[in-house]
Amino acid sequence: MKKMKLNTTDLINPFSSLEKNDDSYEIIYADSRDEEIRLQLLKKAQINTHMARWYYDIDYNQLLWSDGVYGILEIDSTKSGANYETFLNVIHPDDRFIKEETQKSLSIAKHPIEITYRLKMKDGRIKWINEICSADFDQNENPIRFYGIINDITKFKQSESIYLQKEANYKTQIDSFPIAIATYQQGKIIHVNPSGIHIMGAKEENELRGQGLEKFVHNSSLIHFQEKINEVTFRNSSATFEEKLIRFDGSLMNAEITLVHTIEDDNQTIQIIFRDISEQKKTEEALKLSEEKYRLFAILSADVIWTINLEGKVSYVSPFIENCVGYEAKIVIKNIVSKFLSPSSVMSCLIELEEMKSIVLSNMKIEQRKLLLETLGLENNVRWIEVTISSLYDSAYNLIGFSGICRAVTK
């Protein structure tokens, strides 16, 4: 049985033609069982010419590198030829076993093997390499050649490292937020930040992780909650609403919930941001009841209750105003007071208001005042009212307007 020797030029660099174009290439090899040495043409997938390639012929014990391998290893091709030990010595000591085990596996592997490892350069720099190795076998399933492509993925790894660092920072920020945040993925809670653990009344995250919505959402709210999740997932958006949640001890709480759709690890993910508004709801109910009592008082009272801003616009007036000036409350509100007063009464109001403002600027307390004003009702009917004026302040004790009561004194 006769073996065909490779062309001398090909032995020096069989990849020389591949470095010049992107065409598919073919390897010619000898079948040792054929007495006349038949040439077989094996078509290989086109290889990106920017990737480095190596080729090892077992029969001839010949290892060949493309120029790209020398470039990645930072070795002068004129001073050093292709050598497996040379390559192995550049691999990071902690990763050499990856390459060694792969070379052993190639003798029996019937499919490509992909590996990732590090190179440690002479100056201490680290390079990341991705390599895909394959083998060809004869009809007796004996390996006749190994070959592979390697790619420098250092920039990708650096970007990945930055991304992972940002992801870690993002998680740290979430965990430090004073509001509760839970991550919901594939029907389960996969993460809850410390604020969420505290609000839900659990001792640690493991008590909440892996649970479905039914564990935390009240039965009466479950369908609506799931509809909201489907909505933000479909629209890739967010939604805010109020629902009842169940604490870890089984007690209920009113919660303001915001759902935000994201993609994490190629999975549809919902960030559930929530806060306990139970006390707020109690306060709102009490305020609502108080306002209702105030409203009834204002309606039934013979005295008219009013408020105006610093520009003199009426911001509120009780319904009984019609008995005083002859106009309905909806007409008076948002109008300037002077529209309903006689010119002389307008002047009296302006003088009084300016004096009150100057007192405020002097950081002095404004005492309650009374004015007798002439109003112009419908068809310029003249009516007289007695007005009691007090100042209005915001939470920072800034003057924001005036309030008081007035009553009809025409008779």
Structural features, described:
The protein is elongated. The chain has helices at 8-12, 67-73, 84-90, 96-105, 154-176, 194-199, 219-235, 278-300, 321-325, 329-332, 343-361, and strands at 26-30, 39-43, 52-57, 62-65, 113-120, 126-137, 143-152, 180-185, 188-192, 238-246, 252-264, 267-276, 304-309, 314-317, 369-376, 382-393, 399-408. The chain has 3 domains: 8-157, 2-Layer Sandwich (Beta-Lactamase), CATH 3.30.450.20; 177-280, 2-Layer Sandwich (Beta-Lactamase); 295-408, PAS domain (Beta-Lactamase, 2-Layer Sandwich), CATH 3.30.450.20. Strand 15 and strand 16 (382-393) form a beta hairpin. The chain has 11 helices and 17 strands. The chain is an alpha+beta fold and 411 residues long. It starts with 7 loop residues before the first helix and ends with a strand. A 5-stranded antiparallel beta sheet has the order 4-3-7-6-5, sandwiched between helices. Strands 9-8-12-11-10 form a 5-stranded antiparallel beta sheet, with helices on both faces. A 5-stranded antiparallel beta sheet has the order 14-13-17-16-15. Mean pLDDT is 78; it is low at 1-50.
Sequence-ordered SSE layout with sheet pairings:
Layout: H1 8-12, E1 26-30, E2 39-43, E3 52-57, E4 62-65, H2 67-73, H3 84-90, H4 96-105, E5 113-120, E6 126-137, E7 143-152, H5 154-176, E8 180-185, E9 188-192, H6 194-199, H7 219-235, E10 238-246, E11 252-264, E12 267-276, H8 278-300, E13 304-309, E14 314-317, H9 321-325, H10 329-332, H11 343-361, E15 369-376, E16 382-393, E17 399-408
Antiparallel strand pairs: 1-2, 3-4, 3-7, 5-6, 6-7, 8-9, 8-12, 10-11, 11-12, 13-14, 13-17, 15-16, 16-17
